[in-house]
Amino acid sequence: MKGFENQTAIVTGAGQGIGLAICMELAKKGANIILNDVEESLANEAAEKVRKAHGKCIAVTGDASDPKFIQSMVDEAVRSFGKLDIAVANAGITLFGDFLEYKHKDLMSVVSLNLGGSFFLAQAAAKQIRQQGGGGSILFMSSVTGHQAHKDLAAYGMTKAALEMLAKHLVMELSPYKINVNCIAPGATKTERTMQDADYDKTWSRITPMGRAATPADIAAAVSFLVSPAARHITGQTLIVDGGWTSVGPNP
Hints:
Elements: E1 8-11, H1 17-28, E2 32-37, H2 40-53, E3 57-61, H3 67-81, E4 86-89, H4 104-132, E5 136-141, H5 154-174, E6 179-186, H6 200-207, H7 216-226, E7 238-241, H8 245-248
Parallel strand pairs: 1-2, 1-4, 2-3, 4-5, 5-6, 6-7
Helix pairs in contact: 1-2, 1-7, 3-4, 4-5
């Protein structure tokens, strides 16, 4: 089944990994894609992969924490495809660090992108969707670290837990416009970044009840459901996709 024909989605931080998999999944089901990444070469290469595999995709390079740039992405969606239906705030950064030594600039970087970028993408997208009428979907990318403590990730985990509360608050703000807002909280996922650790797959396969770390396609499938018409009555919720890790809890 397609399910996303004539719909347009913005996906931030989508040059590779989970973000690119989300773009692929939505495009495969018929969506027009605005693919964002801060690195121009990654954005262009990723958009070309989506176009070759599935259809319409435009690369937009820029800082997904900048409200002016965020508005330009919404404007591009409307200019190129006539409307905006879905916004996936996937862009984020993970800066590990001992809490007692954590630097102000690092905290501000994590908060600015993970929280600020998500907040203002949701705001800009919601304004456009409200203007169009007909409703739409917003999705935030949380993390299992928003549910369970992980060493040296206090700042990151704090932002991810905050996104889940933001989704709950926006139920009150956006339900009148038929906009649902949800979160996906991925667990360990095999991406270009995480697989730089030679022990990552082995370690997480051992401590994950389902016997393996997630793939980007696992996360993209969950995202696709929550932004689809089938999930329109689901809002303010977080779906954890971690192979059962948070139910058992061993740290690597």
